[in-house]
Amino acid sequence: MKNTLFYNITIALSGLFAGGCITILFILVPFWKSLPPTELMVWFSHNGPHVGITMLPMQILPLLFTAYAYILARKNKEKSKEIWLYANISNGIILLMFVGYYLSVNLQFINQTMNPDDVAFELQRWEMIHIARTILAILSTVLAIVAYFRYEENRNTKITTTL
């Protein structure tokens, strides 16, 4: 029963991050693309830190929770352990994307150090990488759901067998 609650919280956290990515993709990115380069960087300087403070924990928590879910599933020899591992790998790739790309580019936007002539191209690249990040976030959530149902299926089989 304890694992059920933990797995549900993991699914909720993964879904929350995926929802944040979808919101950015379909609301913020089109808005950003409508702004002239210098206005975009001004927007980032005012709002970027707030978005980052919101999104970073939503990105890290699913990684930590899917890692622990994998450890629990492995320790308990659950059939869901491989699925939790794949969800964790997906979340790990998302974190690598942040460290390897978003951190430096977002800081350039926030600090307004990017050449305005490069902003349109960089925003296009930002969007493409964000699409990949969004797909990975959705994938991680779907995998967590599948892992949970695999766990429940296995748990229900054990309960039925013991009756």
Gist of the model:
By secondary structure, the chain is mostly helical. It has helices at 2-34, 37-75, 81-111, 116-162.
Descriptive report:
- It is a single chain.
- The protein has 163 residues and is an all-alpha fold.
- It has one domain.
- It has four helices and no strands.
- This is DUF1772 domain-containing protein.
- Keywords: Membrane, Transmembrane, Transmembrane helix.
Give the total of beta strands. Answer: 0
Shape: elongated
What's the gyration radius in Å? 19 Å
Model regions low in confidence, pLDDT < 50 over at least 5 residues: none
The count of helical stretches stands at 4
Structural class: mainly alpha
Instruction: Give a short account of the largest sheet.
Output: none
Q: Strand-residue fraction? A: under 5%
Order of helices and strands: HHHH
**Share of helical residues:** over 70%
Average pLDDT metric: 94
Query: What is the count of structural domains?
Result: 1
Distance between the termini: 18 Å
Protein name: DUF1772 domain-containing protein
Keywords: Membrane, Transmembrane, Transmembrane helix
Organism: Paenimyroides ceti
Present the secondary structure layout:
Blueprint: H1 2-34, H2 37-75, H3 81-111, H4 116-162
Properties at a glance:
92% helix; 163 residues; mainly alpha; 0% strand
